Recover the amino acids of this structure.
């Protein structure tokens, strides 16, 4: 906004000069007025200024001013904080100060110059997040000062200015301030010529009406076409004023948005007379109903409340609407809303929210959430809930201690009926004596009925969303495992429609101490049914993977399972098995997007993985594997199509954007990289899942040795000799006795209790020797429940457990593997790895 506004826009109740003012009825024409100045002219402002603290000095410094219309006022450049100026007073007290011309004349400093007998002034503190940022000063020329609606609008204007100052904290104040702050309020303005039907509407007004500037032809009829038919008559009476219909007009009306939603708007306008005393121009502003005052009559209030509650989907939304509908219009000091759940009242909103504003008995029980209480402890509310009717208690009524102080000047108790029962209660309290007028009783009764129904709907919605959230969380991993040679993170966002649950899933499966499987998939649809199938598929893939099957077998088994479910849904899937020691990766793709990789040098590519059909289509579908070698520092990214494809985003472009974001992100912070890939997804049409793994390589690579145990009478002896030779070559003779005992017991058990091949594998990693004996039986070894002198078996596993630091078994393809780990004294410990747990600890 310029230092001196050049537009000669009219100002509500401004004193015009000469014959022009008389002819125009106090408001000159504004053919050249800037769009962002029209709203302030209707707020009665001839001049606006921003004062900010001047560094470490005890002064307020003038940062920006704006003048327009017939204003020639000026304000001081600096004001002492300890002085008596209106700006300093508002800054010190954090309260707005409104001065009529008579009150302004009593202030010796800080007023506009040259002085004028009809100049009024408002000083509004600029505060945000507990910080005092400055003061907004507005000068008007109305003999009665600023009206209530003008004050409310200017308070919102001050909040917008404070927001801009807060964003520039630590730097010099941004310039300009006043113009951008005004435009952020989204107040539309227009100038209409009734004789021609042509209207000059700014972009903010077109946006409120849901019209794009390219589609607007400059005709008033085009704007009227967006209003609801029942509001058309009132709008026509304003936009086509009758002769002698001059002065200010206000009304509320409804429009339909581009997607069919209804919104309430407030219109404030003034009709200007021409030289022949006929309407020459209509000047007006339009804004959402939360900006300007709603109509004073009960019908307007109920209409607004009905529309606002129709848009309120959650209990908290309903609570906010109730506070807006009751506290300010009724001049109340407190509003409390509570749901009735069983025999307890659960408070959902308190306004004001500070504990000190509510009874001492409530503050004694105050925790991190608002209090709740049994109905039996509140006889006044219990009586109202039982009768189900409105109770109005005048000033001086003695209440029980749990209600003392809520309404010393009067208390209204509104039971909220909903479908034959009471859904909750609303309390409205006044500090000063309040007279309950008959029309106020009718308004409160109608409000209670509307709020009760909305509260019940919102409670059902909240319960539905809570159930959906719990379902989604229970079907996805609570946390990802820690990996010895890499780091994995994941993100999931549900679709923002319906139940907000869907079929996208991901998982990271630690197969062994050096192998991990990653899987991401998408079940068709985003509903409870899709989420249920997703949970079953994730569980099935994990079960097949931990059994030790190769990737193509895992995906093939999952496909057969989904086909056998006979559901109408199908699923896509990308499965990867990574050797954390070597970096070798096997990929299988079933109708899913190809994986992406970010190489250590920052370049990205889409891995060409041979694909198969989606899961659940064909029972005998084949799923070929693709081998890729990853080097340390590589980031592997698996995503679902909700991230890269939408109505206005082709798949190829989405993949390109994702690769660009992947290349630009810092791989050291994998969580932030995942957030940057998500970006600003806006109103999502589909679920979004992202799974990232940064392959770092093993810090300490294990040494391995293996032996196939032949079923010969001296098989155990050969296994022990192999073990002894290996331990000598590893210089691990210190644990030779313990390791040989474990090998003897595990090999003997495999030969005696199973059929088929047996294999012995030894591994040295850091300070641990790991012994693994694999056989073809899927049954895990069982320790004896009771061991006495007559027992003939079962002692071997007890010995193994006693000699081992950790011990257990895990399924592998075609059988199981029994393993034991023994610590080498005096060796450096191996890096922490996630793998099979012990029998005492269980598997992760």
């Amino acid at each position: 906004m310029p230092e001196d506004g050049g537009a000669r826009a009219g100002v509500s109740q401004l004193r015009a000069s000469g014959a022009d003012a008389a002819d125009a009825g106090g408001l000159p024409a504004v053919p050249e007025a800037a769009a962002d100045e029209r709203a302030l002219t209707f707020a009665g402002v001839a001049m606006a200024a921003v004062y900010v603290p001047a560094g470490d000095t005890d002064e307020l410094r003038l940062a920006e001013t704006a003048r327009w219309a017939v204003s020639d006022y000026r304000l001081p450049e600096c004001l002492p904080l300890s002085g008596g100026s209106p700006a300093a007073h508002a800054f010190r007290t954090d309260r707005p100060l409104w001065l009529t011309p008579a009150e302004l004349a009593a202030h010796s400093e800080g007023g506009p110059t040259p002085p004028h007998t009809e100049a009024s002034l408002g000083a509004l503190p600029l505060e945000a997040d507990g910080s005092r940022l400055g003061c907004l000063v507005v000068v008007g020329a109305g003999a009665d000062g600023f009206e209530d609606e003008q004050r409310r609008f200017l308070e919102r204007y001050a909040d917008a200015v404070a927001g801009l100052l807060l964003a520039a904290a630590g730097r010099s104040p941004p310039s300009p301030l006043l113009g951008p702050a005004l435009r952020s309020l989204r107040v539309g303005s227009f100038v209409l010529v009734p004789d021609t039907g042509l209207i000059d509407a700014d972009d903010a007004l077109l946006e409120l009406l849901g019209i794009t500037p390219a589609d607007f032809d400059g005709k008033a009829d085009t704007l009227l076409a967006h209003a609801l038919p029942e509001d058309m008559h009132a709008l026509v009476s304003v936009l086509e004023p009758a002769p002698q219909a001059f002065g200010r007009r206000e009304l509320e009306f409804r429009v339909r948005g581009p997607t069919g939603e209804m919104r309430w708007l407030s219109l404030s306008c003034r009709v200007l007379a021409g030289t022949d005393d006929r309407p020459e121009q209509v000047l007006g502003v339009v804004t959402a109903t939360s900006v300007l005052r709603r109509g004073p009559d009960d019908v307007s209030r109920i209409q607004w409340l009905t529309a606002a509650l129709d848009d309120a989907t959650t209990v908290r939304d309903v609570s906010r609407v109730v506070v807006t509908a009751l506290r300010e219009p009724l001049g109340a000091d407190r509003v409390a809303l509570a749901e009735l759940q069983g025999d307890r009242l659960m408070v959902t909103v308190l306004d004001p929210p500070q504990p000190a504003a509510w009874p001492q008995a409530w503050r004694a029980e105050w925790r991190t959430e608002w209090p709740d209480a049994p109905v039996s402890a509140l006889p006044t509310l219990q009586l109202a809930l039982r009768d189900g009717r409105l109770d109005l208690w005048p000033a001086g009524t003695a209440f029980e201690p749990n209600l003392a102080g809520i309404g010393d000047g009067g208390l209204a108790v509104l039971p909220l009926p909903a479908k034959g029962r009471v859904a909750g209660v609303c309390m409205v309290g006044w500090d000063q004596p309040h007279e309950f007028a008959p029309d106020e009783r009718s308004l409160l009764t109608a409000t209670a009925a509307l709020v009760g129904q909305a509260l019940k709907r919102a409670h059902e919605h909240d319960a539905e969303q809570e159930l959906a959230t719990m379902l989604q969380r229970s079907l996805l991993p609570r946390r990802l495992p820690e990996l010895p040679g890499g780091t994995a993170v994941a993100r999931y966002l549900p679709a923002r429609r319906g139940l907000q649950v869907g079929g996208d899933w991901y998982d990271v499966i630690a197969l062994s101490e050096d192998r991990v499987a990653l899987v991401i998939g998408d079940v068709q649809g985003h509903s409870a049914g899709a989420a249920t199938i997703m949970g079953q598929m994730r569980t099935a893939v994990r079960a097949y993977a931990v059994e030790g099957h190769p990737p193509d077998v895992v995906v093939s088994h999952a496909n057969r399972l989904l086909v056998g479910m006979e559901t109408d849904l199908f699923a896509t899937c990308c499965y990867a098995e990574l050797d954390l020691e070597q970096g070798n990766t096997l990929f299988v793709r079933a109708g899913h997007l190809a994986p992406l990789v970010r190489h250590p040098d920052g370049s990205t590519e889409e891995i060409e993985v041979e694909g198969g059909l989606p899961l659940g289509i064909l029972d005998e579908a084949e799923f070929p594997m693709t081998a890729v070698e990853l080097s340390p520092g590589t980031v592997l990214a698996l995503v679902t199509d909700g991230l890269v494809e939408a109505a206005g985003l082709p798949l190829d472009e989405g993949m390109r954007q994702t690769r660009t974001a992947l290349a630009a992100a810092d791989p050291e912070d994998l969580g932030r990289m995942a957030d940057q890939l998500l970006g600003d997804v806006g109103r999502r049409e589909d679920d979004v899942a992202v799974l990232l793994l940064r392959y770092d390589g093993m810090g300490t690579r294990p040494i391995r040795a293996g032996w196939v145990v032949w079923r010969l009478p001296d098989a155990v002896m050969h296994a022990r000799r192999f073990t002894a030779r290996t331990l000598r070559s590893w210089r691990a003779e210190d644990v030779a006795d313990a390791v040989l005992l474990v090998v003897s017991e595990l090999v003997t058990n495999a030969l005696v209790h199973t059929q088929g091949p047996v294999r012995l594998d030894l591994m040295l990693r850091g300070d641990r020797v790991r012994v693994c004996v694999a056989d073809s039986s899927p049954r895990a070894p069982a320790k004896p429940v009771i061991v006495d002198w007559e027992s003939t078996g079962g002692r071997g596993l007890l010995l193994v457990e006693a000699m081992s630091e950790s011990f257990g078994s895990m399924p592998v393809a075609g059988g199981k593997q029994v393993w034991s780990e023994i610590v080498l004294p005096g060796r450096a410990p191996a890096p922490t790895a996630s793998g099979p747990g012990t029998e005492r600890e269980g598997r992760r």
Remarks:
- The first strand starts at residue 47 and ends at 53.
- The mean pLDDT is 78.
